[in-house]
Amino acid sequence: MGINYIYPEFEVVRNDARCIRCRVCERQCSNQVHQYDKDLDLVISDESKCVNCKRCVSLCPTRALKVVKSDCLLRENANWSNDNINEVYKQAGSGGVLLSSMGNPKPFPVYWDKILINASQVTNPSIDPLREPMETKVFLGKKGSDIKHDENGNLITKLPPQLELSMPIMFSAMSYGSISYNAHESLARAATALGICYNTGEGGLHEDFYCYGPNTVVQVASGRFGVFKDYLEAGAAVEIKIGQGAKPGIGGHLPGTKIVGDISRTRMIPEGSDAISPAPHHDIYSIEDLRQLVFSLKEATEYKKPVIVKVAAVHNIAAIASGIARSGADIIAIDGYRGGTGAAPTRIRDNVGIPIELALASVDKRLRDEGIRNDVSLVVGGSIRSSSDVVKAIALGADACYIATAALLALGCHLCRTCHTGLCNWGIATQKPELVKRLNPDIGSERLINLMNAWRHEIKELMGGMGINSIEALRGNRLMLRGVGLNEKELEILGISHAGE
Ligand code: SF4
Ligand code: SF4
Question: What CATH number does the domain containing 197 carry?
Answer without folding.
Answer: 3.20.20.70
